[in-house]
Design brief:
The protein contains 15 helices and 8 strands. The protein is α/β, with parallel strands linked by helices. An 8-stranded parallel beta sheet has the order 1-2-3-4-5-6-7-8. The structure holds 5-methoxybenzene-1,3-dicarboxylic acid and manganese (II) ion (MN).
């Protein structure tokens, strides 16, 4: 089918890195840290041959990546600095590298404005400087939203010290994508075996926990217009909403959870959108559309961690209406990330 005759495909959780961040992560790999990100950071950034699995693809933006997009009919990738982003570094290093990564991202988008959009990074380690960078990223660099790779030094965004970051995202009208990283200290011990530390299981539990903490802490009473995006089919939070509602009411009555203006499920439906990244299941997609509405679901590949061709083949053939497919393939991304519709 001719490119302009078919549905536009915008992939919304696509990973990249820059050499400076990769070099710092190699230092992390050689440091005495006990973080559950370590196996992954070692495997990618400090592999014996220099570049581990995925490193070449993460560093490449304009060569193999664009060919892969062309080969598979992917019109646009929404890029984000890959996990753990800058969040394992000290505040100064993290602030500096987030700025650099955002500059590089804006440069590559300016060279390929119809092929790439991008989510800006920031350093939660220094909320004040993070806010300044968030404002620059949206107002000057014209980036399309934000990415945070879940916890920072095992702290979550329900901690009031991070409220300036949430306030900035809300005020800028920019969606904050909470992408996984290895689970926080205290949550990650059972994930240390069988490869559960990363995308097989630990990542999803880490981000689902993050989202539920924000909801039950009352973050969305304080920031009612804040938009959060979760990948991997919403990290399954929407399957849990009925029970969270029931048990949160009990926790509120028992005085161990703050009083909320709405039910947890109502915040999830109002304040969250999800993507299909790395979760190519018809059943999960059907459930997500029924639970949240097709206008709250976006397509993603999770390049380069998952291959492009099956992600496209799956969404092309998914048993949903053509109207829903248009929303999920591109229209929602255009609305949520401020991407110009195709001319
Ligand atoms: C993998 C997946 C590794 C993701 C990652 O490293 C990220 C993996 C940061 O499957 O090995 C991801 O984004 O889902
Ligand atoms: Mn990903």
């Amino acid at each position: 089918m001719a490119a302009d005759a078919r549905t536009r495909r915008i992939a919304t959780e696509e990973a990249f890195t820059i050499p400076e961040v990769a070099a710092k992560l190699r230092e992390v790999a050689r440091s005495p840290t006990d973080s559950s990100d370590l196996p992954l950071v070692k495997g990618i950034y400090d592999a014996p041959e220099g570049g581990g699995a995925f490193l070449e693809e993460l560093l490449d933006l304009e060569d193999v990546r664009i060919r892969d997009m062309d080969d598979n009919g992917v019109d646009m990738e929404v890029l984000s600095l890959t996990a753990p982003g800058v969040q394992m570094f000290d505040a100064d290093t993290a602030t500096e590298l987030a700025t650099l990564a955002n500059d590089r991202l804006a440069e590559v988008i300016s060279r390929h404005p119809t092929r790439f959009a991008g989510l800006a990074s920031f350093a939660p380690q220094s909320p004040k400087r993070a806010v300044a960078e968030m404002e620059r990223a949206i107002k000057e660099l014209k980036l399309n939203g934000f990415v945070v790779n879940s916890h920072t030094h095992s702290e979550y965004l329900d901690d009031p010290k991070y409220f300036p970051v949430l306030e900035a995202a809300e005020a800028l009208g920019a969606c904050l994508y909470i992408h996984p990283r290895g689970a926080a200290a205290g949550l990650e011990l059972p994930f240390r075996h069988y490869g559960l530390h990363a995308a097989q299981w630990g990542y999803g539990l880490e981000v689902a926990t993050h989202a539920v903490r924000m909801i039950v802490a009352g973050v969305f009473d304080r920031f009612p217009n804040l938009k959060i995006c979760l990948g991997h089919m919403g990290e399954a939070v929407h399957l849990w909403l009925w029970r969270i509602d029931f048990m949160n009411e009990r926790a509120q009555r028992g005085g161990i959870a703050p009083r909320l203006e709405l039910k947890p499920s109502e915040y999830f439906k109002r304040n969250f959108v999800i993507t299909t990244s790395g979760q190519e299941s018809d059943l999960a997609l059907e459930f997500s559309i029924k639970a949240l509405g097709a206008e709250n679901v976006m397509w993603a590949i999770d390049y380069p961690y998952q291959p492009t061709a099956p992600a496209v083949a799956w969404m092309d053939a998914a048993p949903i209406s053509d109207a829903d497919r248009e929303l999920i393939y591109h229209a929602n991304a255009e609305r949520i990330f401020g991407i110009a519709p195709k001319a």
